[in-house]
Design brief:
Oligomer: single chain
Strand content: 15-25%
Distance between the termini: 71 Å
Structural class: alpha/beta
Number of strands: 26
Largest sheet: 6 strands, mixed
Bound molecules: 1-deoxynojirimycin
Strand order of the largest sheet: 11-16-15-14-12-13
Length: about 750
């Protein structure tokens, strides 16, 4: 094409864009696009980091690329945009995608940690800053939030999730996407979000990534889909299909999910991108015969853009010519993709000027990262109120463990653009916080969290003996969680449990800080330590956050977004289980150690439990201690009977009865006692983070509309069924004041 024609084409787009008439430019583009250019818009390629390959450049010039992912060098990204805007026939700018999962340069706590904050404002702010920082590199699309319900801590991707509960995950997922997208995608620093992985990916068999999922439709609709519906309703720009096979139909070829539910039932207006090569993988699944068949299945299912593999480019033109794919399907996909580019303002300004955005890693961003890490930590044990430690009365502290001073491992999974040189570790932060009078001895004891070499134990023991308190900073390295990083055992890896044993024998009090990407089975070590602070992977500001918590400059307020099993064999274990016909009770529970030898089987409880561990979890969903205590009193409902469509008004008097200020997460659960399909024993329906000074009391109120009690019934209809309900308000899924109410149908 001659350069005049190029300029002409770009000008046409520009003048159309200036008229702010969206249909005008998009319609005109749609009319002028060739089939190959349409396939191009539906294709995403990966960048090469330090340079633009001639092949990618040429593909962009030919209009065969709609989006590039994993390219974050601003000069290169701007050059990619220039190639698209100035050297392709139609001058359509690119979507630049990146996994901005829990931060860009400033790394916030892993999503599971952020979920432990139960704080929508925090989650939103972390995403907003991540978007601002990513935008400085020209990124305009992130593949987050990941809103797969995750009830299996063996699954490495639980780290990226917002936990086990449909309500908490929905609320926090919406907060996260709003943080990324802002109130206007066109604003500098707003980026498009992506609800992933649609759907059911978290239910991978045995927690093995990419494995099959079998989820009955009723369970899918009541548990796995609500966060996606919430994201669609909140206007998430894109969806990503899961790698997994759902009930025999892989998500990337699943028309029922992508079209019947997403487009038709939910009227979703954005577009769907496949996961990385998940279209060609339809053949690996044994679902498609070959790549052409895979393109056929994916396009007809409603996958609008193909990530990395090229079956659309290679085969859609033939499939269209053969009438196996309808041009309407293609036009729909391309229109949606162009619409997002329009909404992002890319036609007007495809290039990024980083000077118009705040500098990454600025002090405000770091402060938010610190606050988020503080809110994410969950205090699991605090015997004799050993925490907070008193900086004034200590003369020596032993800081022990492989994660105490490891700037990289505290960051967690998915940190492509985070650089550990900006990390502040626990050791550094504690040294800064304590006065020079306190002697601090640091012993790594193990090379990594996975080491089996115990030669460092001797020095660690000596250090503990000499100290007033031993702060052990243990856990899992980053690499042990995340995509494809699943574990069959979820204990502290390597010889960390032996390290705890060795230190425990010294008699020096032990404060254990655990950094990990998942719940760990820590039942056996609990009695050996005095306190446990579960910090997840807290990110860049792990050190200052943990130091403030350990020494009482901040009070822990995180609550578990996921159940901690006693033993891995209990998995899946989650608070919203069904009651079953033979629920386990204390009265019927028998441990195998207590079964008389050769006794008839009838002496057992005959209930839904294991013989070799108690039926309860180690720590339930919603659990978390504070440096103060909260009491709940006077739970009041404005009515004991309400009609369908009405709203129940609920309040409870919350008092901070301790002598420290603190924040409590007040949780509202219900149980629908009888349903046309069985209902969970508890369901979270609302929560509030409440800050109270020592001694202060406050009414905490909730409005509960009967719509919030709806669920999918036997006929897959979303309905609230009249009947009896229990309601709890408390600080955890297993405690709280209880009331009852009835919904009547007149
Ligand atoms: C594969 C992962 O499953 C997905 O979550 C991610 O967004 C893409 N790769 C792109 O990196």
């Amino acid at each position: 094409m001659s350069s005049n024609l190029l300029i002409d084409s770009a000008n046409k787009i520009k003048s159309c864009a200036e008229s702010s008439n969206q249909p005008c430019i998009l319609n005109s583009l749609m009319k002028r696009m060739t089939i190959e250019e349409k396939m191009g818009q539906m294709s995403q390629f990966f960048g090469h980091g330090e340079h633009i390959s001639e092949q990618l450049a040429e593909s962009i010039r030919q209009g065969r690329v709609g989006s590039v992912l994993n390219e974050v060098r601003l000069d290169i990204v701007n050059e990619l945009q220039r190639l698209a805007v100035e050297e392709s026939r139609l001058g359509i700018p690119l979507l630049i995608g990146r996994d901005v999962i829990h931060g860009f340069n400033t790394i916030f706590p892993i999503p599971l940690g952020q979920a432990a904050s139960w704080c929508t404002a925090t989650v939103k702010q972390c995403a907003h800053i991540s978007a601002l920082e990513a935008a400085t590199s020209g990124v305009n699309w992130t593949f987050a939030p990941m809103i797969d319900i995750s009830r299996d801590p063996r699954w490495g991707r639980i780290a990226e999730s917002l936990g086990e509960d449909p309500y908490l995950c929905s609320v926090l997922g919406v907060a996260m996407l709003q943080g990324f997208q802002g109130d206007d995608l066109q604003k500098n620093g707003s980026i498009a979000a992506c609800a992933k992985h649609f759907a059911g990916y978290g239910a991978a068999e045995s927690g093995r990534d990419y494995s099959t999922t079998n989820i009955p439709e009723n369970e899918l609709r009541n548990v796995y889909l609500p966060p996606f519906k919430a994201a669609a309703d909140a206007g998430v720009a894109t969806f990503m299909s899961a790698f997994s096979d759902l009930n025999g139909v892989p998500a990337s070829g699943n028309k029922w999910l992508m079209t019947d539910i997403l487009r038709e039932e939910w009227d979703y207006q954005g577009f769907v991108v496949s996961d990385w090569e998940s279209v060609v993988q339809l053949t690996t699944h044994g679902f498609s015969e070959d790549n052409k068949d895979a393109a056929y299945e994916a396009a007809n299912a409603g996958i609008d853009m193909e990530m990395v593999s090229t079956t659309y480019l290679d085969h859609l033109p033939d499939l269209l010519a053969e009438g196996r794919v309808n041009i309407k399907q293609v036009n729909y996909a391309v229109t949606k993709i162009l619409q997002l580019k329009w909404q992002l303002g890319l036609f007007d300004s495809p290039y990024t000027d980083a000077n118009l955005l705040p500098k990454p890693l600025n002090s405000e961003h770091l402060q938010v990262a610190k606050e988020a890490a503080i809110k994410s930590c969950v205090l699991l044990k605090n015997a004799n109120n050993i925490l907070p430690l008193s900086a004034e009365s200590l003369s020596s502290v032993a800081i022990i463990g492989p994660l105490a001073d490891d700037p990289y491992e505290q960051l967690g999974t998915w940190i492509f653009d985070g650089d550990s040189k900006h990390s502040q570790t626990c050791l550094t932060a504690i040294k800064q916080l304590l006065s020079a009078q306190v002697s601090i001895d640091h012993v790594k004891a193990m090379e990594t969290s996975r080491s089996h070499d115990q030669t460092g134990f001797k020095q660690a023991v000596e250090s503990a003996i000499a100290a007033d308190v031993a702060v052990l900073i243990l856990g899992e390295e980053s690499i042990l969680s995340g995509e494809a990083h699943c574990r069959a055992e979820i204990n502290l890896p390597g010889c960390q449990e032996q390290l705890i044993d060795a230190i425990a024998q010294t008699g020096t009090p032990i404060v254990l800080v655990i950094m990990a990407g998942r719940p760990l089975t820590i039942e056996a070590i609990l009695p050996k330590v005095d306190a446990v602070l579960f910090a997840w992977h807290p990110g860049t500001m792990a050190g200052p956050a943990i130091a403030d918590l350990l020494f009482g400059k901040a009070s822990p307020s995180g609550k578990l977004p996921v159940t901690f099993p006693r033993k891995v064999g209990q998995v899946p274990i989650y608070y919203g289980q069904k009651h079953s016909g033979k629920p386990a009770t204390e009265a019927t529970f028998v441990h195998m150690d207590d079964i008389p030898v050769r006794s008839p089987q009838t002496s057992l409880g005959m209930a839904a439990t294991h013989l070799d561990t108690h039926f309860s979890p180690l720590f339930p969903f919603g659990f978390g201690l504070s440096y103060t205590q909260f009491s709940y009193q006077d739970l009041e409902l404005n009515n004991k009977t309400i009609h369908l469509g009405e709203t129940l008004k609920i309040r409870v008097m919350l008092t901070n009865t301790g002598d420290a200020d603190g924040e409590e997460i007040v949780q509202l659960y219900i149980r629908d006692l009888v349903g046309s399909v069985t209902r969970p024993v508890k369901e979270l329906k609302d929560f509030k983070r409440v800050k109270l000074a020592a001694g202060q009391s406050e009414w905490v109120s909730f409005d509960l509309s009967t719509d919030k009690l709806a669920f999918y019934d036997r006929n897959m209809q979303l309905k609230t069924e009249p009947g009896q309900f229990h309601l709890w308000l408390g600080g955890c899924s297993q405690t709280g004041l209880r009331h009852e109410f009835e919904i009547i149908n007149e």
